[in-house]
Amino acid sequence: MKKKSILWSVLAIMMAALVSVGTTSCGSDDDDNGGGANNAVGTWYGTSSSYDEDSELTLTFNADGTGTYVAVYFDSYSDDTDRGTFTYKMTNKDSGVITVRLEDSYDYYTANVPFNINDNTMSVSFDGEHYILRKR
Q1: Nearest CA to 85 among 73, 63, 101?
Q2: Partners of 48 in beta bridges
Q3: Fewer Cβ close by (within 10 Å): the C or N end of the chain?
Q4: What are phi and psi of 31, to 5 degrees?
Q5: Taking phi first (over 0 means left), then psi (-120 to 50 degrees means alpha), and beta for anything else, what does residue 34 get?
Q6: Contact predicate 47/54, CB 8 Å
């Protein structure tokens, strides 16, 4: 009888150790937006020129995976400003994807915009425009 009691005690201790190792070694991968350093956090500013329009883009990345944008478009007739919010996910410390919900003339749509960071320069291409942004 005593052997059975000792066996159950040893088995219970082993199960408790196994459960505690399994739960402490499996932390959440979603709480730091990409794992490790996030070089995107901060405000980035840049310009772009095309054949019929110039534009300015300001992106502000927050540490919680959200951000804001301001895009100003200049052409020979008028200026137009778009403002909004976005979320982003880092794929590593120097690149990621911005997800933004936009509106065109007829409908809303979601755009996924990749970006890359090299030192204090961010490269973003969207809707035929290529921006080189500098960290402010």
Answers
A1: 101
A2: 55
A3: N
A4: -85, -5
A5: left
A6: yes
- Among candidates 39, 77, 34, which has minimal Cα distance to 61? 39
> CA 66, CA 20: separation in Å to the nearest integer?
34
Q: Which tens digit of pLDDT belongs to each residue from 44-74? A: 999 987 766 788 999 999 999 999 999 998 8
Q: Find tokens 């996030």 and name the residue.
A: 38
Structure tokens at 32: 């730091």
112-121's contacts with Cβ under 8 Å and 24+ in sequence apart are 115/40, 117/39, 117/40, 118/94
Distance (Å, whole) CA 119 – CA 104: 34
Task: Report pLDDT digits (tens) over 21-39.
Answer: 444 444 444 444 445 578 9
The b-or-e profile of 96-116 (16+ CB within 10 A means b, else e) is bebebeeeeeeeeeeeebebe
Residue type, 136: R
